[in-house]
Design a protein that fits this description.
The protein is α/β, with parallel strands linked by helices and 231 residues long. The chain contains seven helices and ten strands. A hairpin with a 2-residue loop joins strand 9 and strand 10.
Length: 231
């Protein structure tokens, strides 16, 4: 069975004036469907660059990246946007919820960009996504009426509403307290248990231990790939 994510000799170099910054220097790995992988590394290690490439938010300088068999490095901006909207759900440290919209409306928003669904259909699917993250009774609340943990759950529901093959989480607990972070990670574990493929970027060992596999990035290189993390 082919890997969901296949990265080969991935290189990303940035120009800062006359200086070349080698953010990634030939990284290779596979991620299978249904895995829960944590990417760790110190600031400046290249982990965020790697996440941006996996999420089709950036393109590599060299190397190849296949997502569900698609040669991502060959796609133009329009096709990359289509891949992001259909195959990938994003969760970030900041919740990026629209303040004047209810939780239900925030979750339904990606479906409006996709098109092809009536408003009633979009809201029905959004309600299902909110139920999945335990917020079915908060669908009519606006962000300021929700706790930080609840706002992040809304953000996760928004990532799930398009039914993506892959969930990318970039420091999803960074704005949360310890107790709320633990609850959020248990939610991600549950989602992974239902078959969702999850790739998580974090600098916190307590967060990474919830994953089943650890990739450690340092100086743009893959230094360690663990098949399992023992809590």
């Amino acid at each position: 069975m082919s890997a969901m994510i296949a990265v080969r000799n991935l290189v990303r170099t940035y120009l800062m004036g006359a200086i070349e910054v080698h953010a990634l220097q030939g990284v290779s790995f596979d991620i299978q469907r249904g895995e829960f992988v944590a990417i760790m590394g110190p600031s400046g290690s290249g982990k965020s660059t790697l996440m941006n490439l996996i999420g089709c938010l950036d393109t590599p300088t060299a190397g190849s990246y296949r997502l569900d068999g698609l040669p991502i490095e060959r796609l133009d901006a329009v096709l990359l946007a289509a891949v992001r909207n259909t195959k990938i759900g994003f969760v970030f440290q900041q919740f990026h919820l629209l303040a004047r919209h209810t939780a239900l409306e925030n979750v339904a928003l990606p479906l409006a960009y996709r098109g092809g669904m009536s408003r009633a259909e979009r809201l029905e699917r959004a309600a299902t996504a909110l139920e999945r993250v335990g917020l079915g009774d908060r669908k009519d609340h606006r962000p300021h009426e929700l706790s930080g943990g609840q706002q992040q759950r809304v953000a996760i529901a928004r990532a799930l509403v398009t039914r993506p093959a892959l969930l990318l989480a970039d420091e999803p607990t960074g704005a949360l307290d310890t107790h709320t972070s633990a609850e959020l990670m248990e939610l991600l574990v549950d989602l992974n248990g239902s078959g969702m493929t999850i790739v998580l970027v974090t600098h916190e060992p307590d967060v990474a231990r919830h994953a089943r596999r650890l990739l450690e990035i340092r100086d743009g290189l893959l230094m360690h790939d663990s098949a399992a993390i023992v809590a």
